[in-house]
């Protein structure tokens, strides 16, 4: 997982309420277990008419084509628990989502995949939505170490963050990475078990 330290990027406004995970990535894209190639399905219904022709969706506008931050409405990521939602955001280059509230499962899945979700009071989100409406000039800096967001005018707000989640993002640690940090202890346990309980292993020494 890529580390998240400081991100300076264009922020795109998406002030819709109750954007669920099916709106983020439709169910037909859930057949894959790969984390790439999902950007084409990101916000598909918001980006296309029923006949497939494009709408004037914010992320398709030239000013926001390089956006890496989304400023969103309340209860973002509600609905079914699909990890493909943060996968699709990440595949489209989105590394940070800022709003007043997120669905719990989506919120947790973001941290496990290198996307930083930030919860702020309504007045701060409204100010960032206004900043984001400036198009290519809507450049925001998110500093995870300092836990601050700095807008294009230089104004800064602080955000709360769970220390363990912060540690994992700063160091690029997903669940597998956390486990592999204990690799030496795991190897020592397996060596001891292999010697004392060999029936747990096949002829090649692999756990049976």
Task: Please provide a written account of the structure.
This protein has 208 residues and is of the alpha/beta class. The protein folds into two domains: 6-172, Aconitase, domain 4; 174-208, no CATH class. 31% of the residues lie in helices and 15% in strands. The chain has eight helices and seven strands, in the order βααβαβαβαβββααα. It has helices at residues 21-24, 44-47, 84-91, 104-112, 122-132, 163-171, 175-180, 183-196; strands at 6-14, 69-72, 96-99, 116-119, 139-143, 148-150, 156-158. A seven-stranded mixed sheet has the order 4-3-2-1-5-6-7. Strand 5 and strand 6 (148-150) form a beta hairpin. The model has no long low-confidence stretch (mean pLDDT 91).
List the helices and strands and how they pair.
Blueprint: E1 6-14, H1 21-24, H2 44-47, E2 69-72, H3 84-91, E3 96-99, H4 104-112, E4 116-119, H5 122-132, E5 139-143, E6 148-150, E7 156-158, H6 163-171, H7 175-180, H8 183-196
Q: Which assembly state applies to the chains in this document?
A: single chain
Backbone CA Rg: 20 Å
The secondary-structure class comes to alpha/beta
The CATH topology label of the largest domain is Aconitase, domain 4
Number of domains: 2
What labels would you give this structure?
208 residues, alpha/beta, Aconitase, domain 4, 2 domains, seven-stranded mixed β-sheet, 8 helices, 7 strands, 15% strand, globular
What's the quick description here?
By secondary structure, the protein is of the alpha/beta class.
């Amino acid at each position: 997982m890529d580390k998240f330290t400081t991100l300076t990027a264009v922020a795109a406004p998406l002030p819709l309420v109750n954007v669920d995970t099916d709106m983020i990535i439709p169910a037909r894209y859930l057949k894959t277990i790969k984390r790439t190639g999902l950007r084409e399905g990101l916000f598909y219904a918001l980006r296309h008419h029923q006949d497939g022709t494009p709408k004037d969706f914010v992320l398709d506008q030239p000013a926001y084509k390089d956006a890496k931050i989304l400023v969103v409405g309340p209860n973002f990521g509600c609905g079914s628990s699909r990890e493909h939602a943060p996968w699709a955001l990440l595949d489209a280059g989105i590394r940070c989502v800022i709003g007043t509230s997120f669905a719990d499962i989506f919120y947790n899945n973001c941290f496990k995949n290198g996307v930083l979700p930030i919860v702020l009071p309504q007045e701060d989100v409204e100010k960032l939505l206004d900043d984001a409406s400036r198009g290519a000039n809507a450049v925001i800096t998110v500093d995870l170490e300092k836990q601050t967001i700095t807008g294009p005018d230089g104004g800064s707000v602080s955000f709360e963050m769970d220390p363990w989640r912060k540690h994992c993002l700063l160091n690029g640690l997903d669940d597998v990475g956390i486990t592999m940090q204990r690799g030496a202890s795991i190897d020592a346990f397996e060596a001891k078990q292999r010697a004392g309980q060999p029936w747990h292993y096949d002829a090649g020494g692999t756990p049976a």
